[in-house]
Amino acid sequence: MVRGIRGIRVGTVKHDDAPALPTAADFPALWPVPTRWADNDHYGHVNNVTYYSYFDTAVNGWLIATTGTDIRDLPAIGVVAETSCKYVSELTFPDRLQVGLSVEKLGTRSIVYALAIFRENDDALELAALGRFVHVYVDAKTRRPVPIPAEIRSAATLLVAPDAV
């Protein structure tokens, strides 16, 4: 069992013990990500690997917007060391999405994000997937681990869940 959003457990649970799934209100930030025609696969829904692209786009887009910095120009960059996704419901083009962002753990050299993809449905946001995304910061040239840049740390602090460790 993996610790999830604001204490919600994500992983294998018995159905009678299943906790309530998170809602958009459980995330300090939401980032809009549109689906694209090319996201659909031969089965008529968004291909599973595309969900990871949505996570990546949301995290990095939010960091750029929040820091006011092109994070690609920093001397340290966040490389993805781990990702996971739990699929809850099917997505398809032309769904409009919001990705919920939260920081589960803010370390010295890494950030563990807890994420969720929500489909816009009229005035509601419906959960479609839960994700985990780990950025490890490395020197842009040497690729050796380094501390999280101050701009990134400051922004990530805004996403730290109250019960995060």
TrEMBL record:
It is an enzyme of class 3 (hydrolase). InterPro entries: 4-hydroxybenzoyl-CoA_TE (IPR050563), HotDog_dom_sf (IPR029069). Its EC number is 3.1.2.-. CDD domains: 4HBT (cd00586). The keyword Hydrolase applies. SUPFAM superfamilies: Thioesterase/thiol ester dehydrase-isomerase. GO terms for molecular function: hydrolase activity. Keywords: Hydrolase. The keyword Hydrolase applies. Belongs to the 4-hydroxybenzoyl-CoA thioesterase family. This is Thioesterase family protein. It comes from Rhodococcus jostii.
